[in-house]
Amino acid sequence: MSHAGLASLLPLPVVAPLLGAVAAPLAARLSGRLAVVVGAAALATSTMVLARLAPDVYRGEQLTHFMGHWTPVGGAALGVAFSADAWGLTYALAASAVGAVLLVYTLSEQGDLGRRELGGLASLFLLLDAALIGVALTADVINLFVWFEVAALASYALTAFFLERPRALEAAFKILVLTTLAGFAVFLGAALLYANHGATNFGQLHLALAAGGVRAPDTVALGLLVAGLATKAGLVPFHGWLPDAHTAAPGPVSALFSALMVGLGVVATARLTFQVFTPEAAGPILGVLMVVGVGSAVAGGLFALFQDDLKRLLAYDTVSQMGVLVVGLATGEASGLAGTAYHLVNHALFKALLFLCAGAIVHQTGATGLSEMGSLARRVPWLAAAFVVGVVAIAGVPPFDGYASVGLIHDALEHGGQGGPLVLMLVAQTLTIAALGKAAWMAFFRRRDGDYDQCERLRPGMLASLVLLGIACLASGVFPGFLLDHMAGPAAGALLAAPGYAAGALGSGAALPPARVTFEYLRPAELALVAATVAAAVPLARWAAGVDRDGRVPAVLRAVQSGSVNDYAAYLVAGLVATVAALAWR
Amino acid sequence: MIVGNYLAAVALFCIGLYAVLTKRNLVKIVMGLSLIEASTYLLLLSFGYRAHSTAPVLLNPPSGRSPTDLAAGNVADPMLQNVCLTAIVIGVAVTGVFLAVTVRLAQHYGSVDTDDVRDMRG
């Protein structure tokens, strides 16, 4: 197919789930399960279309399609552009493929819900996934705001999906307040960029910023956008909504939030930082990202360590992992960016796996707290195996997938001479391993006397999804060279080629040279770091497992994470003001 | 007068933010967010203002002017007004979800105080 022909396929990956979102409630009138099947089929369609584009895009081409064929006139874009570069395509592929797997799992686990419920669940699920793919592909700042809001609205409804549970309502109110505030920030930031430059197309904005220099209103706009997107990504101090929303939602929905939705913030932040602005032009943006990233990585790990609720523990770990991704961006180096692209995919795989396991435990036994669990390895061995695969993947134990991606980010920090952040990242990694190790031990391997009220076996669809994700975690770790050459390297190259991306986003077929990134898989120093973090994590996990639920340390953390929506909004506003001030202060 | 717009936007924003940060009543928080929302619309419309401009309607221009005159620069920026319309539609949907959740919360807890609605913490 020709270049333009391929590019004209670009709206399809978003349109398919949007159509599915309309069709699912209608299909639910016939059968609830049919609605979910429609959803999975829509996302499978998206995946196939994106996979058809992948060979060209990962070779370094950028495909751009203007909606309604409103092509640029004299360098001014009139229509909304969808543009696929390697960075966006990587996330879009992860969002559609993992989304389809999650829907298959939903079909199997939640298949006995009512027709109306399943129709609504499938519809909202597809809306959210369509918005994520839209964020990945759009090259227009106002369109970015629209997808942000579509994702936000779908996430509100999904959080409150179990309307009869007070906790779901509480979580929904918190996510509503914080994400609405974040939406205002993104809205104002996008409008400010337009008001300053008369452009909404990323390429046109980049050219205007490069020609006229980045002035104070531009940095304010960038600060607003980054703070708003960081809220969606759940970075500290914008994270107040995240643990509650993940705890309250059904298992596959938590998996969707944690594995895919939060990535939206990182993907769009990277685009704005590297392709619209450039780190050289936007002053201390990389420093801001480094502080936020390291802070999130450490704080998320610390909070995770002391959680008793399994899903909440995983949710805090998501905060930590998002921090790791942002640190990769903040290195500004090809290897760090490739590490972020790689880890984005890996995180989608292992966090989906872990949340599905957690959801399955809650669904099957009714237990939510780790202190109520135990001995599950004997009762549901497949679940235990899947959870352990997720834990060792996150812990970065070779040959699983976390090893290479986190290793790349560590390499970039080491290479950039950022000793302090590197040490803090290793601390965060230790905390993460300890938190998840504690969870695995307490839920699966600790002896528990007495029987569970109910404990069913895994159904085939659930098992298939878990096995698929587990194999993907392993495969992504076993072939780092292939993935670096054909996915992460091109993604990093696209982020570093701002002028090329700008030209491409305005419709000229630019080439984005893939970045050459190598990772020495068996480097002794790398393996020693993994061994050291695991060794340090074991006693920490043992200690944390022994700490009483109302022990000393959690009381301090409870004071910070107070549960009051006013406090969370205050953290967000403080973070917003600090981000804008740091960027505008030059 | 356009300065007045900016001042009004800032004032609305501050009142809204004050409500969100300090009021424990859920309904007042929703009202605060609506005020902030309104302030962003006012701000955007003011961004789009041009001195001595007319409304960006290019059909049936006033006597003595052609559509080209209007398009050439002495109309307010229609793009930002468009964006505002989009945001207003989204804002209505969000407020609807907000109030639905608040009603359900009030039914469950018998209270609309944020301090009563904080089971999840730490």
Number of helices of chain A: 25
- The best one-word shape of chain A is globular
Write the CATH fold name of chain B. Answer: Helix Hairpins
User: In CATH, what is the class of chain B?
Assistant: Mainly Alpha
**Terminal-residue CA separation of chain A:** 49 Å
The N- and C-terminal alpha carbons of chain B lie at a distance of 48 Å
Helix content of chain A: over 70%
The appropriate CATH architecture of chain B is Orthogonal Bundle
Largest sheet of chain B: none
> How helical, in percent, are the residues of chain B?
55-70%
How many domain regions of chain B?
1
Written as H for each helix and E for each strand, in order along the chain, the element string of chain B is HHHH
Q: N-to-C SSE series of chain A?
A: HHHEEHHHHHHHHHHHHHHHHHHHHHH
Tally the helices of chain B.
4
Give structural notes.
The complex is a heterodimer of chains A (586) and B (122). Chain A is an all-alpha fold and 586 residues long. Chain A has one domain. Chain A is 75% helix and 1% strand. Chain A has 25 helices and two strands. Chain A is globular. Chain B has a single domain (2-54, 73-109), classed as Helix Hairpins (Orthogonal Bundle), CATH 1.10.287. Chain B is built from four helices and no strands. In chain B, α1 (2-22) runs antiparallel to α2 and α2 packs antiparallel against α4 (78-109). The model of chain B has no long low-confidence stretch (mean pLDDT 87). At the A-B interface, α6, α7, α10, α24 and α25 of A face α1, α2 and α4 of B.
Question: What descriptive keywords fit this protein?
Answer:
heterodimer, A: 586 residues, mainly alpha, globular, B: 122 residues, Helix Hairpins, elongated
List the helices and strands and how they pair.
The complex is a heterodimer of chains A (586) and B (122).
Chain A: H1 3-7, H2 12-30, H3 32-58, E1 63-66, E2 81-84, H4 86-109, H5 115-137, H6 141-159, H7 166-197, H8 202-212, H9 216-233, H10 242-248, H11 251-261, H12 263-276, H13 285-305, H14 310-331, H15 334-365, H16 376-379, H17 381-394, H18 402-415, H19 419-445, H20 460-478, H21 480-496, H22 498-505, H23 524-546, H24 552-560, H25 565-584
Antiparallel strand pairs in A: 1-2
Chain B: H1 2-22, H2 26-47, H3 67-71, H4 78-109
